Stage 0 sporulation protein A homolog
Amino acid sequence: MYKILIIEDDQIIANALKNHLEKWGLEAVTIDDFHYILDDFVAYDPQLVLLDISLPFFNGYHWCSEIRKISKVPIIFISSTSDNMNIVMAMNMGGDDFIAKPFDLTVVVAKIQALLRRTYSFQGQVNLLEHQGAILNLGDASITYDDQKLELSKNEFKILQMLLENKGKVVSRDVIMKRLWDSDCFVDDNTLTVNIARLRKKLDEAGLSDFIATKKGVGYLIGD
């Protein structure tokens, strides 16, 4: 079931959208606290966002820009300010479509379904893993922290993904090595140590010191 995040401060409109989307077999949630929209986005990990332009505190353009730093998820702007300038601005900020208010709920669903088909028939679902403000994007093998986007090597990405998926648990060196080099060939144990060291250095330079802990003689972990 596809998950839709509705970022709309008019609760009547937001609830009408939510109820209608659920009738069409889509999962949907609305935003209650407009201070922490990006946190809610990461926690919910939607496949599509419906985003109003006029919002409390920061407008939709701001939040579109913030989401685009960490995700390529489809974004449809919904707004009563549907002049050409706002439509162009919405597209330039990273929006994928624009729906003017007042709108027909059937048209909204049709646009959502079309965009979901175009996006996920070819790309598959994009997932995010988050810890202490650091966000690992499984779609493009990057990690974002404090407005910095770090590109990871194939092995760095696999290591970080394993540790985040097992957050709070020690992942043994043997398990990590099996995941990285899935073969019967002998791999020098020092090779993993080098990969971990490079990953830690990259995280340290981004401000994520002590992100990965060592359990001596066992393996590595990321704490809860």
